[in-house]
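User: Please fill in residues for this 74-position structure.
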């Protein structure tokens, strides 16, 4: 791919980078957790390479869990 096309990734390639299933990535796109784009000719889903890389970085460095306050039984 050259030019603008090289800035976008297919579902398969994006999933390989993120380590998730295609259904997971499609779900994230449908729920607005990651921006989806469509190929102008075949209408396939595409994802910006930059967006996938940012998400991969977040997934590789998760935030620590906050302590949970537990209620004492009465």
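Assistant: Residues filled in for all 74 positions:
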């Amino acid at each position: 791919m050259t030019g603008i096309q090289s800035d976008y990734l297919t579902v398969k390639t994006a999933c390989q980078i993120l380590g998730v299933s295609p259904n997971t990535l499609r779900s994230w796109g449908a729920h607005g957790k990651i921006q989806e784009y469509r190929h102008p000719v075949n209408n396939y889903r595409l994802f910006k390479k930059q967006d996938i890389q940012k998400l991969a970085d977040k997934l590789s460095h998760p935030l620590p869990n906050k302590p949970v306050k537990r209620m004492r039984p009465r």
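For context: The chain has a mean pLDDT of 88.
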